[in-house]
Design goal:
Layout lengths: L1 H4 L3 H9 L12 E2 L2 H13 L9 E5 L5 H8 L3 E6 L2 H10 L7 E5 L13 E5 L5 H14 L4 E7 H8 L9 H7 L2 E9 L4 E2 L6 E8 L10 H12 L6 H5 L14 H12 L20 H12 L2
Parallel strand pairs: 2-3, 2-5, 3-4, 5-6
Antiparallel strand pairs: 1-8, 6-9, 7-9
Helix pairs in contact: 3-4, 9-12
């Protein structure tokens, strides 16, 4: 472990950058700010899920291993998924002989299975895969409940995850996350905390599991389809959007355009308990997350 004391974020990034030219297609902007890295680990304790020896952490896209180093220093077990071959070789050189605590898989995080005993997900996510990774996190959490997720993502994306900055940040991304998590925003991370520096700022985001007692079991695929369909035209009234069937509706078993039109006729002509009286004349951002779950259930079971 003495090797750990000789390492720091800048050195790890420099060692990798001596061997590669960061690829924009892989979102290779490497975090070098020690304060941000330390803050990421501190957040696990602030949200009552500190890293311990029995913790099992998943990291997506470790790159040079700056965050990897701090996770391993905590004593936790870590599985890292990295798609870049040179980064994999680099990490194997930096963290040898840690088979009992460190598993490194050369794997696309969006393809294949994740370990079934993960308690924490801690990652500096490549911007371009943030949305599909979150969907995979939700699907994983339904089967293997997670304790906490801490992510570094694009600042604007973080606001849409949390939906805290007014109606403009409400959308299908935050609505979907709300089904499973409370989303908390932490500090903003300027672009100069990375090497090479991206053109936009980032933000630390914490997801903690929530228990939505008000929810009835809903078809999540249908929920995502409806919210995306309506928010594609967020300036239109909900009635207008729902009058047309969503694209890819036939991917929902038993659903097709004719059934949608018939169902909407019933929905438009009958009240739905729990929905605002004037919901059909509102715009998508006017509805709260719970209203979208009620509406989804009403349409699906009509």
């Amino acid at each position: 472990m003495s090797l750990f004391h000789d390492l720091n974020a800048r050195l790890l990034v420099d060692l990798l950058r001596d061997r590669i030219r960061p690829q924009k297609s892989l979102g290779q902007h490497f975090l070098v700010d020690e304060k941000v890295i330390s803050r990421t680990i501190e957040l696990t304790s602030e949200y009552q899920n500190p890293l311990k020896k029995h913790s099992n952490v998943l990291e997506i896209g470790p790159g040079p291993g700056t965050l990897t180093l701090e996770i391993l220093r905590s004593g936790a077990k870590l599985t890292a998924l990295e798609i870049d071959k040179e980064s994999v070789s680099h990490l194997k050189r930096i963290f040898p002989d840690l088979e009992d605590r460190f598993t490194l898989n050369e794997q696309d995080a969006l393809i294949g299975n994740w370990p079934d005993n993960i308690s924490h997900i801690i990652s500096n996510l490549p911007y371009q895969i943030s949305s599909p990774v979150l969907e995979k996190i939700q699907n994983y959490h339904m089967i293997n409940p997670l304790s906490i997720i801490i992510l570094l993502v694009q600042d604007e994306f973080a606001e849409r995850m949390a939906m805290t900055r007014g109606y403009d940040t409400r959308g299908p991304l935050g609505m979907s996350l709300w089904l499973d998590f409370d989303v908390h925003l932490d500090r903003k991370v300027p672009s100069n905390c990375f090497s090479p520096a991206p053109k936009i700022n980032s933000r630390l985001v914490i997801l903690t599991p929530s228990n939505r007692n008000i929810l009835s079991p809903i078809n999540r695929k249908f929920f995502r389809l409806i919210t995306k369909h309506c928010f594609l035209n967020r300036r239109k009234k909900i009635r207008t959007s729902l009058s047309k069937s969503p694209k890819r509706l036939n991917r929902i078993k038993g659903w097709h355009k004719e059934k949608w039109i018939k169902t909407m006729s019933n929905i438009f002509n009958n009240s739905i308990e729990g929905m605002p009286d004037d919901w059909l004349d509102l715009r998508p951002e006017d509805l709260q997350p719970k209203h979208w779950t009620i509406l989804t259930d009403a349409i699906f079971t009509n």
